[in-house]
Amino acid sequence: MKELIDILKRDRKLLPEEFAALINGMSEEDALYLKEQAFQVKEQFFGNKVFTRGLIEFTNYCKNDCYYCGIRKSNVNAVRYRLTLEDILSCCEEGYGLGFRTFVLQGGEDLRYSDEDIEQICRSIKNKYPDCAITLSIGEKSYESYKRYKEAGADRYLLRHETADEEHYRLLHPESLSLKERKQCLWNLKELGYQVGTGFMVGSPFQTAECIAKDLAFIKELEPAMVGIGPFLPHHDTPFKEYPKGSYELTLRMIAILRLMIPNGLLPATTALGTIHPMGREAGISWGANVVMPNLSPVRVRKKYELYDNKICTGDEAAECRSCLQRRMLTVGHEIVTARGDFIPYTFEAEGKENLCTM
Ligand code: 5AD
Ligand code: FES
């Protein structure tokens, strides 16, 4: 397996069957080797700097019904909320003071916000904080809508593909959603010049090593700037409530594999990773992640944005989260920086040893 890891590091890709073999056949010793290699690459490109994004979960209404998600429309127990433009701007104000230079606006697919509304949100944030990046994460929209948001100031877009296996996709989503459409959205976003983020859950029901191999092949093809992955965690009010959570160890290994695939990529140590293990986000950094995304949403709505059970940080003020994460990152020798943390395309052929963090 060490050989495969070396090939992955050198070529930044493997064949799907090699990915599957690596995932299935990795010993503890191989995993430690993988971790070392990934950490080394991360250090080469980013040093000990960790980028941070302020996450604003502005609506938990959703027209979709994904079987894994706690805010799916059929969950009548979910207490729904929407933030106003003023709410969002006050989150940004607090976040800016805490050193955030990227705001991530995440929400369910909520038809109440028209394209004009989203444009207005983007324009207002950009107007007040021209030095900040805006990331949208509001699901599948038309090419035209994505174009409008981009023109209104959105810089980045997060849309996890969830699984790149057609059959698996069908088992996680109702008929109204399709992998084809999902992928098309991602290609549209790329074409429009967004820094694009995709990703998937590790250990979602029915996932196999072959599914993950397809995820990695799709990620290679897409060449995203960001990849968010976290373990599947069951939510008590969903059809998947009885399914076991994903593997913590496999999630860490996937982060390391992704770091070798995308040396200059922005890989978050996700909230789901911090939920499955008390030191999950720290471990994520040690396995090659370089981004953390603390929550800036008002505390009164935090618990309501519950995609899975026991989500962390739902009772903490933004400032507490920020300083908590600062301390946590220090325990693994890392430092959070005040910077936009843009994706920097890199010509590997130029064989550079430069550090992409300019802070
Ligand atoms: N467990 C883990 N991650 C989840 N997501 C949604 N539901 C769950 C769950 N039960 C992830 C999806 C989505 C992102 C916002 O959160 O991958 O894209
Ligand atoms: Fe939110 Fe620690 S990061 S409380």
SSE arrangement:
Blueprint: H1 2-11, H2 16-25, H3 28-46, E1 49-52, E2 54-59, H4 85-97, E3 102-107, H5 115-128, E4 133-137, H6 143-151, E5 156-158, H7 166-172, H8 179-191, E6 195-202, H9 209-222, E7 226-231, H10 248-261, H11 271-276, H12 280-286, E8 291-292, H13 299-302, H14 318-331, E9 335-336
Helix pairs in contact: 2-9, 3-10, 4-5, 5-6
The protein binds 5'-deoxyadenosine (5AD) and FE2/S2 (inorganic) cluster.
What does this structure look like?
It is a single chain. With 359 residues, the chain is of the alpha/beta class. 43% of the residues lie in helices and 12% in strands. It is built from 14 helices and nine strands. It has helices at 2-11, 16-25, 28-46, 85-97, 115-128, 143-151, 166-172, 179-191, 209-222, 248-261, 271-276, 280-286, 299-302, 318-331; strands at 49-52, 54-59, 102-107, 133-137, 156-158, 195-202, 226-231, 291-292, 335-336. Helix 2 (16-25) packs across helix 9 and helix 4 packs parallel to helix 5. The protein is globular and about 55 Å long. 47% of the residues are buried. The mean pLDDT is 96. The structure holds 5'-deoxyadenosine (5AD) and FE2/S2 (inorganic) cluster. InterPro entries: Aldolase_TIM, BATS_dom, Elp3/MiaA/NifB-like_rSAM, FeFe-hyd_HydE_rSAM, HydE/PylB-like, rSAM, rSAM_sf.
Summarize model confidence as the mean pLDDT.
96
Structural class based on helices, strands and sheet pairing? alpha/beta
Strand order of the largest sheet: 2-3-4-5-6-7
Q: Biggest β-sheet: count, sense, barrel?
A: 6 strands, parallel
In CATH terms, what is the architecture? Alpha-Beta Barrel
> What order do the SSEs take from the amino end to the carboxyl end, as H and E?
HHHEEHEHEHEHHEHEHHHEHHE
Shape: globular
Q: Would you give the CATH topology?
A: TIM Barrel
- Helical coverage, percent range: 40-55%
Say what oligomer this is: single chain
Q: Name the CATH homologous superfamily.
A: Aldolase class I
CATH class: Alpha Beta
Number of helices: 14
Cofactor: [4Fe-4S] cluster; [2Fe-2S] cluster
Binding site for S-adenosyl-L-methionine: 162, 182, 233
GO molecular function: 4 iron, 4 sulfur cluster binding; metal ion binding; transferase activity
Keywords: 4Fe-4S, Iron, Iron-sulfur, Metal-binding, S-adenosyl-L-methionine
